[in-house]
Design brief:
This protein has two domains: 1-17 and 139-223, no CATH class; 20-137 and 231-254, no CATH class. Helices cover 73% and strands 3% of the residues. The protein contains twelve helices and two strands; from the N terminus they run H-H-H-H-H-H-E-E-H-H-H-H-H-H. Strands 1-2 form a two-stranded antiparallel ribbon. The termini are far apart.
């Protein structure tokens, strides 16, 4: 029950963060979307064993999160949901890629170890970048810019509907779980024998809730087309931010700052 309530609170907290008034919040949505996409693509473009090169890209969350006044705790909690998938994907490399990459003292570092660390780095950096975008930009602004980039209207509409009413689905499950607990006060979780009927009822109630929402939208003139409000054009600060960010981004892509700093320490 606490997990369901935490899911609702997590969505609401990101919504509240996106309505902030920091320098990052005031940037044009198109600028934030474009720089986030560029950041993720550059991070993913690194070879699977280039661990040192990826270390420099922590600059983005380290600088932007304090400027945006975004809670580290909140974003790291959302980030934790993506880690199990990366761990499962990286464990296979640990087992299969056993060739020695280099020897550090008495330890032998294999190719699989480097690949595992690289996968974890890419996951952490990419997911953090997307979470920062969501935490500093209203979701309607993000989908509006996606339509301008040529994404089909139906896909943007699905994004908006899924994001907007995910909390309604979680709330429905929370209400059902509360009713179940009242009927079985001595049980902490749903029994396996009741899980099938619980999930079936949740699906049926979700259909009913969705139909009610759809009828309410039709009464308000919804025609199946996603319309976004017009936004102001980017200003000088937006352009300057883009130029500086992309310059740093592509410089770090082709210049390994971590190895350079390591050489200076020696």
């Amino acid at each position: 029950m606490s997990a369901l309530r935490g899911g609702i609170n997590g969505i609401d907290s990101l919504e509240r963060l996106a309505m902030g008034d920091s320098p990052i919040h005031r940037l044009h949505p198109a600028v934030k979307l474009a720089t986030t996409i560029a950041y993720v693509l550059v991070v993913l473009s690194f070879p699977s064993q280039n661990v040192s090169g990826l270390m420099s890209f922590i600059f983005y969350p380290a600088i932007v999160m304090p400027l945006a006044d975004v809670s580290y705790r909140l974003l790291l909690a959302r980030l934790a949901a993506a880690l199990p998938f990366s761990i499962f994907g990286g464990v296979g490399n640990l087992i299969l890629l056993r060739d020695t990459a280099f020897v550090a003292g008495p330890f032998s570092v294999t190719v699989g170890m480097l690949s595992f660390v690289s996968i974890m780095q890419k996951t952490l950096l990419s997911v953090l970048a997307v979470l920062i975008l969501v935490a500093t930009t209203p979701f309607a602004d993000i989908t509006r810019q996606l339509t301008r980039l040529g994404m089909p209207n139906i896909i943007c509409l699905q994004f908006v509907m899924t994001y907007r009413y995910l909390s309604a689905l979680i709330s429905e499950a929370y209400s059902m779980f509360t009713a179940y607990k009242l009927r079985s006060p001595n049980t902490r979780m749903i029994k396996m024998k009741d899980m099938g009927s619980f999930l079936g009822q949740l699906v049926l109630r979700s259909f009913d809730r969705g139909e009610n929402i759809y009828q309410a939208m039709k009464c308000r003139g919804f025609l199946g087309i996603y319309h976004g409000q017009a936004t102001a054009a980017p200003i000088f600060l937006d352009v300057a931010y883009s130029i500086i960010f992309l310059s740093v981004l592509f410089t770090l892509r082709f210049f390994n700052l971590s190895l350079f700093l390591g050489g200076l320490v020696k």
